[in-house]
Amino acid sequence: MYYSKHLWTNIFFLILYLIYYYVAPWVKTSVYFRDFWLVTFILIEFKNGLWYLSLVALLFIKLLLFLKKLIKVNDAVQVDNPVNHRLGIIQGGNIGVLNHHRKSHQQKYAIDFVVVGKCGNRACGLAPKSLSKYLSFGKEILSPVNGKVVYVESRHSDNPIGVMDFKLPFGNVIVIQDAEEFQYVFAHLQEHSVKHSVGDTVEKGQVIARIGNSGLSSEPHLHFHIQKRLKDKNVIGIPFFMKDKWLIRNDVISPSSGHR
């Protein structure tokens, strides 16, 4: 009876952990911290003689990663890393629990990024109060396309940590339109960091702004999505891959070679 109860208790915690493995905002501590708990669980189960639960956990995670690689999205746009640093995904995916943008028609494929260090941390400390302690703050953003600037906001102050501007959700923003009329939207930018005006032409790889904490943002990060305006004037979100990956919360993408 004890063994059976112990088994079902462990199964319950395994299921709970596997949910948290994908859903929890691990970047608050470290995107790699979840793997520490996975290894700890595996070692405990081996010690308890329940080695097959460890095997189930590993196989389940590997299966999800494999299925994710098989995702095919029609008309998805290939995009380069726009910051050229190691980035962690804090909002992204096809379901609301992973991505709060899903409820918006034009932002349904939007992703929120933060720059992360080698240990998977997004800041110097768990919740520092200084903007400069966040690795994202002030990092240069590079245009992923050749295009024309069609909208700019750059005069709004960066919020103190924990404060958000509900009146201006995007805060400082730049929108670049390419030859196919896809619009690349970069939001929550640093005050006065956009050096371009509407009508300017930008080239792929050119610095367009810096990551800030303006608008509906409680700490420094970059909001990015692609949209297109239809003939009936409706605006729809466009799916995209980055480094050939369909990104969801807690994914990490590497910078281009030669950068950190």
How would you describe this structure to a colleague?
The chain has 260 residues and is an alpha+beta fold. Helix content is 22%, strand content 23%. The chain has three helices and 13 strands. The radius of gyration is 20 Å and the shape is globular.
List the helices and strands and how they pair.
Blueprint: H1 2-23, H2 33-47, H3 51-69, E1 77-79, E2 87-91, E3 111-115, E4 140-142, E5 147-153, E6 172-177, E7 182-189, E8 201-202, E9 207-210, E10 222-229, E11 235-238, E12 240-242, E13 252-253
Helix pairs in contact: 1-2, 1-3, 2-3
Attribute tags:
single chain, 260 residues, alpha+beta, two-stranded parallel sheet, 3 helices
Low-pLDDT residue spans:
none
Structural class: alpha+beta
Report, as a whole number of angstroms, the end-to-end distance: 54 Å
Oligomer: single chain
- What's the tally of helices? 3
Mean pLDDT: 88
Describe, in short, the structure shown:
With 260 residues, the protein is α+β, with helices and mostly antiparallel strands.
